């Protein structure tokens, strides 16, 4: 028969093993969570939509779309993915395009309608990334566009700003 001290030591060892296992699971979950936050940075191979085929290549592109959450059918949650688009010649198909993300902005708000993001006949750009795409368009001498596939809208981004 085991003594009380031996049983306590066995219990402590079991609990320490369980703690170690749980710590490893927590680390794995945290790592996965960090990767999910960076998922937008994955390069995306794609075939151009009819809307995109009208745009020049290479170009800077800001993709605007709503994020449907729990089946919502409104425009409260929106996202802008900003990147560079060019024809990828390393692929065997000559119509393969590549989108390399540079940044992402999300927003929760507005009045829930598309019109709250479409003022004066123009799609809104987020403040920080809107300035970035304009400045980088000038710096790299590339045209810049914002597109909303769902609403079939593409617009050239033209801001009045001196970046010298």
Distance between the termini: 85 Å
Tally of separate domains = 2
Q: Average the pLDDT over all residues and give the rounded result.
A: 83
How many E strands? 8
Order of strands across the widest beta sheet? 1-4-3-2-7-8
Rg, rounded, reads 24 Å
- The quaternary state of the protein chains shown equals single chain
Largest sheet: 6 strands, mixed
Order of helices and strands: HEHEEEEEHEE
Q: Provide a count of the helices.
A: 3
Can you tell me the residue ranges where pLDDT is under 50 for at least 5 consecutive residues? none
User: Which percent range describes the beta-strand content?
Assistant: 25-35%
Structural class: alpha+beta
Helical residues, percent:
25-40%
Shape: elongated
What does this structure look like?
The protein has 164 residues and is of the alpha+beta class. The chain contains 3 helices and 8 strands, in the order H-E-H-E-E-E-E-E-H-E-E. It has helices at 4-37, 50-53, 127-140, and strands at residues 44-46, 59-66, 77-87, 97-108, 118-119, 122-123, 144-148, 153-156. A hairpin with a 2-residue loop joins strand 5 and strand 6.
